From TrEMBL:
Provenance organism: Azoarcus indigens
Record-linked InterPro entries: DNA_brk_join_enz, DNA_topo_I_N_sf, Top1B_N_bact, TopoI, TopoI_cat_a-hlx-sub_euk, TopoI_cat_euk
Entry-linked PROSITE patterns: TOPO_IB_2
Domain (DNA topoisomerase IB N-terminal): residue spans on this chain: 23-71
Name under which the protein is recorded: DNA topoisomerase
Catalytic activity: ATP-independent breakage of single-stranded DNA, followed by passage and rejoining
Length: 392
């Protein structure tokens, strides 16, 4: 179900209001205070920061969007239901499995476009995609460069790159002001970037249009090329693929864990190593750039190295990862199907019990049977004045 605009949700959600003595209360759309104890406990568990302004919380424990509000910079922030988050994550990792299947097709297109003469648009975009494929850089945006003086692939300047033979080295200020340094060893890329460095201007990635003029490459151009070549994917998918691939290679090199505790320690080392290569924090890398299926398979001792050769345009480790993703996601779907079947069975049994209980209550009670045996005569009670019976 698509999330409704926040303006409409405000008409249905509870509004958070600060109290003079500290803490908050929550008001219904009609102005009445919300006092449900279980609901207030759920709201507290959402842990919406006290500093957030214009906070609204769903009164429904099953709503996809549980709460939203504005942070100190005025940006909308959201709290989603765990089931919704899990469903979104599963869609994301299924997308990654499809990305692996489409990658060989993209590489064929890139190789063909890199053979074009001159520096036309498709050749320069193919160069950028090759860099994404090899180095998994952030795509960048002109807006971020203007506002924060941070750079990504499409906004790099000539001062951010140097060519050392067949190696290309990038050094630039990335997102959140973090200094990034990455290198790619590829003779074709090194030669093409050398030609781009010789063009006038400070912008690194430019192409020649049909009139012979030069144009800067935009992030929109790059994503359009990717969609045309491999389907509904974007530059960000390369970072997710790269992070998961690096994690799988790192864990494979470590070997199977000897115990659960050792495995957890190895996973932490892996996340830190991948985060360093991607230029992210460990928390962001683990939550956004490494498919958790890889961790599950590693702890189960099933993460194995690729075979001697690649397949279908993928290198050995990529082919192995593609198979692992397909297997791991298939298992998760099967587990979900089993759980859903169990819930459906339990629900059906509950419905049957309720229906039987309803029929039992609705059934008319049988009339009491008429007593046919002669009742035994009981002795008359003794006279309070003595033991002699009263004579009538």
């Amino acid at each position: 179900m698509a999330t409704l605009p926040t303006e409409l949700l405000q008409q249905r959600y509870l509004r958070r209001e600060p109290l003079p003595e500290g803490g908050f209360r929550y008001l219904r759309p009609n102005g009445r205070e919300y006092k449900d104890a279980a609901g207030l406990a759920r709201i507290a568990a959402l842990a919406v920061p006290p500093a957030y302004q214009e906070v609204y919380v769903s009164p429904d424990a099953d709503a996809e969007l549980q709460a939203f509000g504005r942070d100190a910079r005025g940006r909308l922030q959201y709290r989603y239901h765990p089931d919704f988050i899990h469903a979104q994550a599963m869609r994301k990792w299924r997308r990654l499995a499809r990305f692996a299947q489409a990658l060989p097709q993209l590489r064929e297109r890139v190789a063909a476009d890199l053979r074009c003469s001159g520096l036309p648009r498709r050749k320069v975009l193919a160069l950028l995609v090759r860099l994404l494929d090899r180095a998994h850089l952030r795509v960048g945006s002109a807006d971020y460069t203007r506002r924060y003086r941070s750079y990504g692939l499409t906004t790099l300047k000539k001062q951010h790159v140097r060519v050392e033979g067949s190696k290309v080295v990038f050094h630039y200020r990335g997102k959140h002001g973090v200094e990034q340094e990455q290198s790619v060893r590829d003779r074709t890329l090194a030669q093409l970037i050398g030609r781009l460095l010789a063009l006038p201007g400070s912008t690194l990635f430019q192409y020649e249009d049909e009139e012979g003029g030069r144009r800067k490459v935009r992030a929109e151009d790059l994503n359009a090329y990717i969609r045309e070549a491999m389907g509904r994917f974007t530059a960000k998918d390369f970072r997710t693929w790269g992070g998961t691939l690096k994690a799988a290679e790192y864990l494979t090199a470590l070997g199977a864990p000897t115990c659960q505790r050792t495995g957890a320690r190895m996973l932490s080392r892996c996340v830190r190593a991948v985060a360093s290569q991607l230029g992210n924090t460990a928390a962001v890398t683990r939550s956004s750039y490494i498919c958790p299926v890889i961790f599950d398979l590693y702890l189960a001792g099933e993460l194995v190295a690729g075979e001697a050769g690649g397949e279908g345009g993928l290198c050995p480790s990529e082919a192995a990862l593609s198979r692992l993703l397909a297997r791991g996601l298939r298992r998760q779907r099967q587990a979900v199907a089993v759980a859903e079947k169990a819930v459906a069975t339990q629900l059906a049994e509950s419905v049957v019990q309720l229906e039987e209980g309803g029929r039992e209550k609705a059934r008319p009670k049988a009339a009491p049977t008429r007593q046919t045996t002669k009742p035994t005569r009981q002795a008359a009670p003794a006279n309070r004045m003595g033991s002699r019976e009263l004579q009538l």
